[in-house]
Fold each of these.
Amino acid sequence: MKVVKEEIGRLLNQPISAYTLKNDNGMEITCLDYGCIISAIKVPDRNGHIENIVLGFDQLDDYRKWSLYFGNVIGRVAGRIKGAEFELNSKTYVLPNNENRNHLHGGERGFHNVVWKAKMIQIEGTAGVQFSYFSPDDEEGYPGNLHVKVTYLLTNQNELVISYHGTTDEDTLLNLTNHSYFNLSGNMKRDILEHSLTLNSSSFLELDSEFIPTGSFLNVDQTPFDFRNGRMLKDGVLSSHPQNKLVGSGYDHPFILNGDHPICLMDHESGRCLTVATDQAAVVLYTGNQIPSGFSIQGVKSRKYLGVCLETQGLPDAIHHTHFPSIVLKKGDEYHAKTTYTFSVMK
Ligand code: FUC
């Protein structure tokens, strides 16, 4: 197991480094101190052929040019906050509206667009990096001086463990996630429509025309949202269900997780499997419906459905729905979240 650091350029007037974590099976994960980006995850297919299975750019500047949140940590609050404002402890907080009149993924200068401090971790059986960031009171409009840590750990069991930690000196909101786009075909050889997903969820959140939860939980029974026995992602693209159509033909929805069954994504042709286990309440399944065309991603033409995100998190816009689990982090409390991604192959 080892971690290799390499300086790869400058952004925001600061040097940016890439950290490559390597395990004893030849698996590699590269992550950046800019936005905690996971820029590459290299794992074998069923024939032992090692390829990259996440979307990432070769050029650092492209991450700022195309704000698609490739591999990023998202914060302070993942997803959209309606009307870019919220009330907490009888005070109204106004946030920057960076998507129409709403606030998306922590704002323009969210955690995806800042440089984090990095500390390499090389302990028995793991290789990793701990990223930390201090977000001052009022940054992007949020209250509280917030200290955040995100740790990426690679094990010899081909697991990537992401742990999140936060503390604040004033009540605030915190709902972190990682926004990696997976494509298990390897080096984006195919899009993700033939990937199958198994997800133990019996309900998902209905979205309005701005992709913000209406507050209603919809039952997955008899719909393309029922992944309990596995289904192809293309089902949602071909679907005439109004919720699939609304988001640009596909999925962009928070699913409520039932119990601790792992989420399982598979590409039958390469044999690659990804299982995701989390302590979070929900996973946002986003099939890349909004990836624009017109640029290139590691030599591949950008287009819809080139990657799929499994964003484990609390429910989006929870601050406006009292029946959603709270995402308020109270002064003196600690925020903890953990998601484990395990890579394997079908025989
Ligand atoms: C996802 C989606 C959004 C958006 C973005 C890039 O989380 O919920 O609709 O397109 O990320």
Amino acid sequence: MESIASAPGKIILFGEHAVVYNQPAIAAAVDKRAVVSVKKSENNYTTLKSYDLGFEAILNTKEKSYELVSGKPGIIRYILEAFFNAHDHSPVDILLSLAFPVGSGLGSSAAVTVATLAALYGYHNKKFTKKTLAHNAYIVEKKVQGMASPLDTLISTNAGLIYLNRDKKVSRFKVDLKPTFVIGYTSKKRSTQKMVKKVSELRKRNPIVVDSIIQTMGLLTEEAKNAILKMDNDKIAQLLNINQGLLDSIGVNTVELSRMVFRARKYGASGAKITGAGGGGSMIAFCPNRSGEVYHSLKNRDNGLKVNISNEGIILKTRV
Ligand code: PMV
């Protein structure tokens, strides 16, 4: 029996960093997914292979350890933790595909964790709801990282375009944001925790100024909510650009991100900004008309990915 589950990655459109200070945020699942397949092994040990990430390993799921066979390991700790929580430790072969980069603020760890847990529930014929899946995936992320936001696993499980209000309540937009986004990502790994700390230190030294920027980010996200509801693409683009300026002002921009933002705008993006924690990672370009040109302009110099917002959350299939 083979159990195959897939779950999407995410982008933050508005409100990163401000959300840490209880301001609202808008985020969305994208049509780039993590796919995890689990099937009974012919051997008496468990293997994990990923052609996309270029590695192969033998796992000891009972002890949460692994031996590398080839390549450089990626994202294994999340898989081991998920297996530790939801598997009986019988030998299986695991295949992982990932259509977007790891560690770039696109929710790879959440997507891989959600897909791994769902594949295991399918393999063991265990019933689950989206609510328990998102929660259990959050617990796995928290265990591995020490600290996690429940938003990534929630979006990866349920998908869609989401508004997180000041009380951390999530609601789904009923309208679709149709235009394509282009993601530009740097190969520079960054730590979300470090970037959050950097902003908090800046705020400590400049409380009045930084607090007013954070509040402005909150107002901007509320305006963006209205613009999305009205499907006003020009306004959405303007707000994305303003948000970029605010993110720059709190010190999370980098030369590479800035270069991609300006390049995307030059080649036709109407709005472009950092997505997620910054300091490396990714930027998004809103391209209602010229996504092709923007994609090529980013890909030629850095790394580009065309995405659309997706309403497809967790998908699980089993076959005998
Ligand atoms: O880059 P990501 O996906 O780790 O996003 C971080 C978003 C922050 O607002 C900076 C932190 C958070 O936990 O919300």
